[in-house]
Amino acid sequence: MGELRTQEMLLNMGPQHPSTHGVIRFVVKTDGEVMTTAVPDVGYLHRSIEKIAEKATYHGFMPWTDRVDYLAAMNCNYTYALAVERLAGIETSRRAEFLRVISMELNRIISHLLAVGALGMDVGAYTPFVHGLREREKVNDLIEELCGQRLTYNYARVGGVIYDMPPGWDKKVLSFINQFEPLLEEFNRLLTDNKILIHRLRGIGVITKEDAINYNLVGPNLRGSGVKWDLRKDIPYSVYPEFDFEIPVGTGEGGALGDCYDRYMVRIKEMRESCKILRQCFEKIPAEGEAQVKVPKKVRPPAGEVYVRTESTRGDLGCYLVSDGSDKPYRVKFRAGSFTAMSIVEKISRGMMIADLVAFIASLDVVAPEIDR
Amino acid sequence: MQQFANWLLTKIPYPAFLPTEYLYIGVQLIFALLMLMLFVAPFAGIISWVERRVAARMMDRVGPNRVGPQGFLQWLADGIKSLLKEDIIPTNADPILFRLAPYLVFIGMFVAFVVVPFSSKLIIADLNIGIFYLIAVTSIVTVGIMMSGWASNNKYSLLGGMRSAAQIVSYEIPTGLAILVIVLLSGSLSMQEIIAAQGAYPWEWFLFSNPFTAMTFFILFISALAEGNRAPFDIPEAESELVSGYSTEYSGMRFVFFYFEEWANIYLIAAVGTALFLGGWQIPPAVRQWGAATHFILPHLLEFLTFFIKAIAIVFVVIWIRWTLPRVRVDQLMILCWKYLLPFGFACALGTALWMVLFPKGVPLVSYTLFGGAVVTGGYFFYRVWYQLKAANVRVHLNPFV
């Protein structure tokens, strides 16, 4: 009898699959439970947002930026607004900058809540995800009071923000933070310290420091590999230099530096840091100042180009803006963290198990619309 | 039963060439089926309601509360809805096996209830190999699940079916070892005799009989969870990986059969745990006498309630685990079985045998100590829960009716 041979199987994971978080397709070659490779196939959610920008005015493109990354709409709004401001030389008021930071940090908290909750759900724990959503709803209520929207906020404007915060809103945010921080500890007891979760995540999908830099990973994925790089500190923008906060990096506490557990922990720690920033914001926010400075109805930046980088919830969000002097952008390009995160999947996923691939993708926290835009 | 059959003989023209035993068997079969249909089948439905309500509460949701009082009849509504739905059979599926698989799964779980002792009299058949029969027939479920995974002609289903086969076959062994411990203690395979060997009070239960049996209970509980594809061992239907695995291609009533199996299985896990370790339907003799003096049905009712409450408590724990813990990976599952549960199962079987040789009459002091330890552990657990609730400053909704 000859040697017993197994046959490779081609498994089509996605475009509609519960753990791809949107419409991504992975072409998985498996031999039973162990995979040979997983090749990501992106492009299912391309809505040509960047092309639409060329047909819209500078103000008119603002709602489209919400759709770049629907879980971090505040950051995308802000990045685009900042690019236009840099190009047109518009100075915003200090109060508006604080409002922008507050909205962005609130956005960071809820985005990370969803990321860690969804990771929990991908490895089989359903309750933490719902608890995360519950807290997210509270923040959504707060943001709704601020700008009237719950998902596509469309809050930042060229020259500031659309509305000043309603009276008494700061108290509500502070009371939310006061009850959120103990709840985060409860969340940790429920999920983070869970033995099964640690065993599912540690040593899985290890991205070394060199790989993380070479593959151009950004944000928590980069910091999870131990690289201390955060644009809020390293290339400061807005009023971030005034705040005292830490940059959490992966410590390898799960087992190997840069494994899924490290990326997960970075997000948990970043939520605490965001709470810290929010507290300082409400201490330092100036009482006076207009929400939006006077900006012409049709912004016509001088011909030229600008590249702006901000630290979105999924890391370095870049906006490249070219103006030809007219009232419409000549070219807008977003550089998104999710796209580069997809590029490393093929390398890391070699020899993984199918269940690990799910945990690995979840730990990268990719948002499908951000990949394709 | 025999009287009823004899009465039937006088009423119906029975062909004389057939032995009357055939009629007795027929009557008994019909009676058993009726009992299963009317008494046991709703259990799965009730458990589904319990699971959805408990899960909802853990997630800060409300859960089904529209159909019937507190949504209690939701399972009936769902069942009727599924019956009326279109039954889709994929073009490339194996038509015969695809249709057959849900019935195998259903039957495997359904007939296991034959030996579940709800009270001292309320048992369909007190087989002298009761617990062995139970292990044997529940194995049919594996065949059904594998068949559905293969016949669906879907790679995810196939993976799910394969995982399920590997998992259930592996975990049969620790389960068997754990049951062996009880068989050693009670000296019988019959469910009723196993319960009769225990007492009504906690320290007379097999759970606290000696330290090894206490450990065996956990081995049985874990391996029963794994055998029933329950979280955290629900890898055959791992929703986030395999898109519900072997049942992916099923719809309508066939799909419900798989879920019937799952919910009936929770109750079966709980019932076996109760019967083997928690004293089953045993009530204190004084209560039994008082009950018998009041009305002849009362002792049976009390026994049934005792059994039901103990089983529902275990069902609650199973659901609690399901909605709290992440899922283990398939290799970790195998490691748990072969490296931990199996050696410990052997140790427990040997330890119990040794214990029985050394102390043939048992040691009540050890039982009291173990029971005391369990009470202290439980007390400490609830103290911690209370402490952490206070620390997190969470509003606790104690009202179960929403």
Describe the structure.
The complex is a heterodimer of chains A (373) and B (402). Helix content of chain A is 47%, strand content 13%. By secondary structure, chain A is α+β, with helices and mostly antiparallel strands. Chain A has a three-stranded antiparallel sheet with strand order 1-2-3. Chain A has a three-stranded antiparallel sheet with strand order 6-7-8. A two-stranded antiparallel ribbon of chain A has the order 4-5. The radius of gyration of chain A is 21 Å and the shape is globular. Chain B has helices spanning 2-11, 20-58, 74-84, 95-110, 130-151, 155-186, 191-196, 211-227, 239-242, 252-277, 285-294, 298-322, 330-358, 364-392. The model of chain B has no long low-confidence stretch (mean pLDDT 83). The longest helix of chain B has 39 residues, at 20-58. The A-B interface holds A 9, 11-12, 17-19, 32-33, 120-127, 130-131, 134, 179, 182-183, 185-186, 189-191, 194, 196-197, 199-200, 353-356, 358 and B 55, 58-61, 155-156, 159, 162-163, 231-232, 234-235, 238-243, 323-332, 388, 391-394.
Task: Please give the structural blueprint.
The complex is a heterodimer of chains A (about 375) and B (about 400).
Chain A: E1 9-13, E2 25-31, E3 34-41, H1 49-53, H2 62-66, H3 73-88, H4 94-122, H5 127-147, E4 156-157, E5 160-161, H6 169-192, H7 195-201, H8 209-214, H9 219-224, H10 231-234, H11 260-284, E6 304-312, E7 315-323, E8 331-335, H12 337-343, H13 345-348, H14 354-364, H15 368-372
Antiparallel strand pairs in A: 1-2, 2-3, 4-5, 6-7, 7-8
Helix pairs in contact in A: 3-4, 4-5, 4-11, 4-14, 5-6, 6-11, 11-14
Chain B: H1 2-11, H2 20-58, H3 74-84, H4 95-110, H5 130-151, H6 155-186, H7 191-196, H8 211-227, H9 239-242, H10 252-277, H11 285-294, H12 298-322, H13 330-358, H14 364-392
